[in-house]
Amino acid sequence: MKKRSSLLKWLLIGLGAVLLLIFPAIAKNRYQVHIVNNVGIWLMLSLGLNIAMGYAGQFNLALGALWGAGAYTAALLITRLGVPFWINLPIAIVVGTVLGAFVGLPSFKVRSHYLALTTIALGEALNLALVNFDEITGGALGINRIPMPTLFGFPINNDERYYYIILIMVVLAYLIGRQIVSHRIGRAFRALRDDFQAARAMGVNTGYYQILAFAISGAYAGAAGALYAQLNTYISPDIFTFGSALIVMTMILVGGMGNLVGSIVGTTLLLVMNEYLRVFERWQLVGYGVAIVVVVLFLPGGVVELARRFQSYRQRRSARLAPEALGGEGD
Amino acid sequence: MYLEIDQLTMRFGGLIAVNNVSISVEQGEIHGLIGPNGSGKTTIFNVLSGYYKPSGGTITFEGRKISGLPAHRITEAGFARTFQNMRLFKTMTVLENLLVAKTYRGRVSMFQEIFNPVAVRREEQWFTDNAMELLGLLEVAEFANDLAISLPYGHQRRVEIARALSTEPKVLLLDEPAAGLNDVETENLRNTLAKIRDLGVTIFLVEHDMKLVMDICDVISVLDYGKKIAEGPGPSIRSDPVVIEAYLGKEGNQ
Description:
- The complex is a heterodimer.
- Chain A is mainly α.
- Chain A has helices at 2-26, 30-55, 63-80, 85-104, 112-132, 134-137, 159-182, 184-194, 196-201, 206-232, 242-255, 260-276, 284-298, 304-330; strands spanning 150-151, 154-155.
- Chain A has one domain (26-317): ABC transporter involved in vitamin B12 uptake, BtuC, CATH 1.10.3470.
- Chain A contains 14 helices and 2 strands, in the order ααααααββαααααααα.
- In chain A, strands 1-2 form a two-stranded antiparallel ribbon.
- The two termini of chain A are 25 Å apart.
- The radius of gyration of chain B is 19 Å and the shape is globular.
- Chain B is α/β, with parallel strands linked by helices.
- Chain B has 2 domains: 3-78 and 169-248, 3-Layer(aba) Sandwich (Rossmann fold); 93-156, no CATH class.
């Protein structure tokens, strides 16, 4: 029984992997691939925020600005200095990490909701800096004609090719994220979320782990920024805001806080829903609002909780069936 | 001197919670700290474990000053504690609760943690073995993979002691470990404390259960209104008129 279900699981994973690998070939048009590429970028953001917020309980609502920092770093490096993709991406990640850690500094003094407020303020300040240092950043107009990457002489000059870069990055981001959350670091994160004082008494260096949580979400946002800039070839400050951080937060809430699969489910669900609801453009945010209320009321663990509930239902059912089977044998 | 609390004073605004208290705890002993409610016992624990910086006085441990260090550094120095109102990590299993206490023992770097699964697994195994041993000592090993807060109250108390031991402390601070336990469980706790002492861990104990304190403590310090009013072995404390007065009031003073 157990063996069969794990075989089924691997079959599903294999099928999913094949579908992901051949997706550009089976997509209806280039636009669909473009949409999926954007899903990948939001996935990077929501994986990072889920580690900081879902696991460590650190509200990093400067995420939009950190995303912007990554995007501008990569865009400026390639347009001004001609630094290629495979170098500007790691630099963008470093910039995101450092700024993320910086945004986390107030966590030494303030906690939970107050900390969330300071991160909003720092994020918006960073966003304003993007607008106001216009001789470098191009101001409100942003930066355009950002070249798409060339890897080993092979131009990644369309969405289909770029798709594979994003696929690799998201898979890496997920695997690295899983390593982070499933062992020592993840336990320290959850400890400071569950009970800050007890965590201190157990020898957890809470200050270090808080900053680390912010830095990790910053690293993910930095990577997402570099990918975003070179996918869309145009960036401007108006997307790198508190609003975007809120959207990512919604994705995590809907998918599942403190669960990386929840990030994937929530992000995909919201963005796909978004495409189908595009005709009702003005209702989009209302839809998000309703989604949050429904999830918080009925599925506090997010959509992934459905799977867990289904599993425990099956366990209960087989537990109920087992004694009967034994009784039958006794006859 | 092993653990030396020297003229410790803790002020909160105008309130003096602990007033010029000196206590020394010898290595390997079980040292009791008793006193009526509000006499400053838990405050002393909170200073000891680094939650408060003392307003005056110092605490030295193995000749090193530890007062004023942040809480996690004090744990590293060899202190572990439990809480009056149990603070288990509520989303974690019993085993995970103990593994958190291993965080600072980790030798695997963050880079290795992400890119070297073999090193991570080896360390996790080592931590898990040690944690399971402690759960065995506290007789809660069978619940290792249950959610800690789903256990009965008495078992949670034991998990909390196991978690404190999981930091591999030299001194264990127990804040009312018998609170809410029935007679059988208290008797069990007594045996457990003896076992822990036999491991070479010094125990500093705040407790209201007088029978337990008198039975098991080598030395008892008595606090009243933030001041130390008596100190000595159980029998001498039991017959000390100052202590009796603090607990029961002055004779003919009703």
